[in-house]
Design a protein that fits this description.
2 copies of one chain form a homodimer. Chain A has helices at residues 7-23, 25-37, 39-42, 46-52, 56-70, 110-121, 135-151, 167-173, 189-198, 221-233, 249-262, 272-277, 286-290, 306-316, 329-338; strands spanning 79-84, 90-97, 100-105, 125-129, 159-161, 182-186, 211-215, 242-248, 267-270, 282-283, 297-303, 321-325, 343-346, 365-367, 375-377, 383-390. With 397 residues, chain A is of the alpha/beta class. Chain A has 2 domains: 2-205 and 378-389, Aldehyde Dehydrogenase, Chain A, domain 1, CATH 3.40.605; 211-352, 3-Layer(aba) Sandwich (Aldehyde Dehydrogenase, Chain A, domain 2), CATH 3.40.309.
Chain lengths: 397, 397
Amino acid sequence: MLRAASNELRCEAIVAMAKALETRADEVLAANAKDLQAPEALALSESARDRLRLDEARLASMVEGLRSVAALADPLGIEVSRELRPNGLEVSRIRVPLGVIGVIYENRPNVTSDVAGLCIRAGSAAFLRGSATALRSNLAITQALRAGASAVGLPEDVVCLVEDPSHELAVKFMQLNGIIDCLIPRGGPALLASMREHASVPYVIDGDGNCHSYVDKAANLAWASDIAINAKAQRPGVCNAMESLLVHEAVAERFLPGLAEAMPQVEFRGCARTRELIPRATVASEEDYATEFLDLILAVKVVASADEAIAHIQRYSSGHSEAIITDDEQLAEHFRRSVDAAAVLVNTSTRFVDGGELGLGAEVGISTQKLHWRGPMGLEALTATSWFIDGKGQVRP
Amino acid sequence: MLRAASNELRCEAIVAMAKALETRADEVLAANAKDLQAPEALALSESARDRLRLDEARLASMVEGLRSVAALADPLGIEVSRELRPNGLEVSRIRVPLGVIGVIYENRPNVTSDVAGLCIRAGSAAFLRGSATALRSNLAITQALRAGASAVGLPEDVVCLVEDPSHELAVKFMQLNGIIDCLIPRGGPALLASMREHASVPYVIDGDGNCHSYVDKAANLAWASDIAINAKAQRPGVCNAMESLLVHEAVAERFLPGLAEAMPQVEFRGCARTRELIPRATVASEEDYATEFLDLILAVKVVASADEAIAHIQRYSSGHSEAIITDDEQLAEHFRRSVDAAAVLVNTSTRFVDGGELGLGAEVGISTQKLHWRGPMGLEALTATSWFIDGKGQVRP
């Protein structure tokens, strides 16, 4: 039984899964070639076809990914708290497996082995539902993973794939109460909307990132410029990229023209004062301030105070990552206490809100919900806790 | 703003709420008298009328309850983890307020001040929906609490009561996504079923407790007897009472007849071997093993091994509290690793699974779900975490 499997056995299983995937590379690549030749796949956009495509290098990276998960520290058995009660009871809270983790994902076949490895590492079975276009690839990968689990004596069913990729069954999958202990979506807005509408099992959602940076009047403007350029332009298409920039009026004139010059590739949309300082900027609408552009577009607003910036963030934030650039430590603390987000950053780039960058070793997603786990989810986010209570015959008076 | 309120201000607010409730005792008791005289209240059972009834002593205990919550340690600002990253970023996870906590409850007016105090202590606004029968009482209590909050400079709306107690509005309340950050039901099976059907906001559910105790062949039988009597009979109507007892066949003959004699008030339902050893026992059906009796009834099964007991628990457990009585420490560890429950107890009574007994200071309920918080919920269960990331101008390469 996986729940009771030792750390060693779970690691051996993942290493065996990696080995089986390596051994069966030809079958996986052949299945993937069939997926790519199917009419539905031929109708996909080139970028979607690219996400679906496997080759030897990508398969090798999936194998390597599994091996690196085996090398991560065990997330189970960790003591969250311990107390000796006055009546002699030893009370501790300990990290234990969730049970069955469901994952719904789109047409990247590598997700199959990535998430299966993380689930097994955390002592939970992986119940997977990938996209119809990747079904043959996912089946071949799953068969390899199951063979690996079996080779070390675990049940094959520690990894299961839904073989009917219909929409009806996806909805049923989201309603497997009592079977799925935690459902994690890996996909775009349509999948998240469907989860919110249909899911009745507990889930952790990886939502939008409408991330702000506020450049205070007490900011180190050289840092502020580096940070703004990094947060906006280093990789604009991801959820931890900056979408809106707020600038204190006292430094706007010294800061904004240079920033605009340093990012000629970025489209600026701003308030009246922004447009005075950046002639190429167009008018920012309410909707612009509310939008996760995921593109080389930046909404800018000049504010009269830090509290105006905080109020703007409270209004438009999606609760992902919010940054302040200031040398005023008291203001930084006020900002931390006032802003309600998964991550609050001081004097650095929102792009650091990432499991790898924060030392989690692996990332399942970035939770924008408040219950269970918030922010980048590593192995710990895939566990539950139990109270362990040890006595010597004590009874309650 | 409550989110940014200091520990001192939150405590002062709760003390002021207690004072206001004390000052307005006459108004609250007059409102309660009207509730009790309303036709719907006159139609209630005597026990339901008793739950609705306030008197000077009960009101004093509500006031005292608020003062004791003010005296609890601050659950906010607690460091869950901290790490200095190789690039110099200081990364910590810190306990922060949830935001708005919704509570739906039945006709105990004391819940109004109890949960409002806990929410404010945890830095969250309390959005309350009580029963129609208690509306006048709840309004009078809420007005006092709002006056208390206002007296220390917090917005009155840190405590809000839904003034339309219709079923339609209760359903809408459960769907206030974006307003309610966490919904907590305080009530019976009908309320929980309605939550599972209608709620779209994140919630924490306090489910059934079909709790087992397993008396191993290596058990200290004197302890086992004390524990079984305590777990079954000390307060049978609560969720942490034992409902089923599993006994290893090697000790059944020495254990069960004496236990039955020691609990003449308890009805036994058992397997064939149980009925041989306890002549008054009747046949236990599958349904008996699945039932949370909340009564002086005990289902008993004699098992051939610890693993048979574990398999029985896996099949019938509601994931609340499961106990083993054994002197075999290796078996105890196997039991802890195999059983999937909010609490796993060794050599003690399931009745200890309670916020007060475990040192939480106050209890909002006992979560039987796995995400967010599991088991007795104190103030910590009413918080979220944020990542705080402090830099000196670092950007992501």
